[in-house]
Amino acid sequence: MASNSNSKELEINERIRDKEVRLIGADGQQMGVMSPRDALRLAQERDLDLVKVAPQAKPPVCKILDYGKYRFEMQKKEKEARKNQKVVELKEIRLSLNIDTNDFNTKVNQALKFLQQGHKVKVSIRFRGREMAHTNLGIDVEKRFAEALEGKAVIDKQPKLEGRSMMMFLSPSPNK
């Protein structure tokens, strides 16, 4: 079982060592301030657990509940929250120095599709052989690519040569 940080932090039953705690019953009703021993006894009478839900409060707040069920509910909520997070992927578009106009436009349209889906795009050019002598042409191709996507993408990282590859990073324009 994967232990989440939330269940690790919660103190239950005999682990609660405060002088006094504010108790909330299983039905959500305030039961007042008392010693943890008395609160634990009340919880055990109902076959439930005493769980410290707000340790930073003065006095700490404890609640009578079924800890196993509570942990299950918390894990379910965390799983739901993770499911609703948008994962931004990095998509790569590879260009070449002597790319044809139609190929170029196809790559621009592909990048546009990725950007509309909310993904970041890495535009790369691989220099082969004597092409290394003409890295300035690679910068021109990548700049032209960025201009073709103007208004729809912003440049995160300007074209930069790393080894035999030149890379530029684009992300979706915020004013869509």
Q: State mean pLDDT (0 to 100 scale).
A: 88
What is the spatial order of strands in the main beta sheet? 2-1-4-3
Proportion in helices: 25-40%
Q: Would you tell me the structural class of the helices and strands?
A: alpha/beta
Order of helices and strands: HEEHEEHEHEHEE
Poorly predicted parts: 1-7
Question: Overview of this structure, please?
Answer:
The protein is an alpha/beta fold. It folds into two domains: 5-84, Ubiquitin-like (UB roll) (Roll), CATH 3.10.20.80; 90-172, 2-Layer Sandwich (Translation Initiation Factor IF3), CATH 3.30.110.10. Helix content is 36%, strand content 29%. A four-stranded mixed beta sheet has the order 2-1-4-3. The longest helix is centred in the middle third of the chain and has 18 residues, at 67-84. The radius of gyration is 29 Å and the shape is rod-shaped. Mean pLDDT is 88; it is low at 1-7. It is found in: Cytoplasm. Its main location: cytoplasm.
